[in-house]
Design brief:
Elements (H helix, E strand, L loop, with lengths): L10 H5 L7 H15 L7 H17 L2 H8 L27 H8 L20 E7 L1 H6 L1 E12 L15 E2 L8 E8 L2 E8 L8 E2 L12 E12 L8 E4 L15 E7 L6 E3 L2 E9 H6 L1 E6 L4 E6 L8 E4 L15 E8 L6 H13 L4 H4 L5 H10 L3
Parallel strand pairs: 1-9, 11-15
Antiparallel strand pairs: 2-7, 3-6, 4-5, 8-9, 10-11, 12-13, 14-15
Helix pairs in contact: 2-3
């Protein structure tokens, strides 16, 4: 009796692309998601599982043959090649074999065709590094030293993976084809199926004497020191791409890219909104009433500004071109100084007397405010339409 069909994974959905997506669209979607969920960036266990699904989806959809299996309703990574295997299991001798075997019969396996061995040299993955900078550094740029742990080319074997004086050997099990064929019976009749060679893992070659430094991988992990040039005007969350400074691929393959993600530390005085800066300055009530002059220390200079007499709480002064330089183009943002007028909380007897005398000269005694024409009356009249 046949087992029920397994549910094929939605590889298109995992990468977030349509079923008619081009190879470039699939690659872009993969690189974007890989940067987001890479274990070096996102240590969350759920993100690591997501990263495995993303890699599996890219492996399938970047391979024309595997993608064709998906489009026909199968799953090339499922046991038995698509959830349609019989009691014998993958590679078993039961009356039914996997969906992959049936596809082999129609796309090269039955005709003796071969996909060929897998290349040992493959491109490396991208890497992401978080870099924390101060506001002055993001505003005016800086050459920042960074340290990154990545896979680099093995200098002992130069990526070959073999010990000195030795070479790769043709796999005796598959004869260098990288796959082996078997004949099995299915409900469609006799099928010749192909499977990756388990001896050489599909490479077609073996390494009799692996390099003692990299154990045959062609690369080793190490810590490297680099200097990254941060342009003036970068913002929190931006990424700077360093081409081919990421992971070297297996077999000494081309290195991926390194992305440096900028994280701006909070500043003690200024807050940033785009290229504009904001700060708050407290002035005494008397200074706001009489006017005064303030010295404001900007990011790269000192500016003297006049506070006009009668300045109200919450007033804002704008200093043009004293903010952050624009990342693209010339010029700078502005600096906004928000004024907080401070009212004294404790007065001695003389201060209180003088303040009461001042209020009397302006007709602002507390008792007067409750009379006709006082503050509350004016508010009432405004609501009643008598203003």
């Amino acid at each position: 009796m046949r087992t029920p069909n397994a549910v094929a994974r939605d590889y298109y959905g995992i990468l977030g692309v349509s079923r008619d997506a081009s190879d470039d669209e699939i690659k872009r979607a993969y690189r974007k998601l890989a940067r987001q969920f890479h274990p070096d960036v996102n240590p969350d266990p759920e993100a690591q599982e997501k990263f495995k699904d993303i890699n599996a989806a890219y492996e399938v959809l970047s391979d024309d043959r595997k993608r064709q299996i998906v489009d026909l309703g199968g799953d090339p990574l499922a046991p038995g090649g698509g959830g349609m295997g019989g009691p014998g299991g993958p590679g078993g001798a039961g009356p039914f074999v996997g969906f992959q075997d049936i596809m082999d019969a129609f796309f090269g396996g039955a005709a003796g065709g071969s996909r060929g061995p897998r290349p040992r040299t493959r491109p490396g993955a991208d890497a992401i590094l978080r870099l924390e900078l101060d506001l002055n550094e993001t505003a005016f740029g800086v050459e920042a030293p960074i340290t990154v742990d990545t896979a680099v080319l093995c200098t002992t074997c130069s990526g070959a993976g073999t010990a000195a004086g030795t070479h790769l050997a043709t796999c005796e099990a598959c004869g260098g084809r990288g796959e082996v064929q078997s004949v099995q019976r299915t409900f469609l009749g006799q099928v010749v199926s192909a499977r990756p060679c388990t001896v050489c893992q599909g490479y077609g070659t073996t390494i009799p004497h692996p390099c003692p430094t990299c154990a045959g991988d062609g690369r080793v992990r190490t810590r490297r020191s680099l200097t990254v040039k941060i342009p003036a005007g970068v913002e929190d969350g931006m990424r700077i791409r360093l081409a081919q400074q990421g992971e070297v691929g297996p077999g000494g393959g081309t290195a991926g890219d390194l992305y440096v993600e900028i994280h701006e530390r909070p500043h003690d005085v200024y807050s940033r909104k785009g290229d504009d800066l904001h700060c708050r300055v407290t002035v005494p009530m008397t200074a706001a009433a009489l006017g005064t002059r303030l010295t404001i220390k900007t990011l790269d200079s000192e500016e003297t500004v006049d506070v006009k007499p009668g300045t109200q709480p919450g007033s804002t002064m704008r200093l043009r071109a004293r903010g952050v330089p624009h990342l693209r183009g010339t010029g700078r943002g502005d600096l906004y100084v928000h004024l907080d007028v401070r009212t004294p909380t404790k007065l001695d007897a003389d201060q209180e007397r003088m303040l009461r005398d001042f209020a009397k000269t302006r007709g602002e005694e507390v008792a007067e405010l409750t009379k006709q024409g006082g503050f509350f009356s004016r508010m009432r009249d405004a609501f009643n339409g008598h203003a």
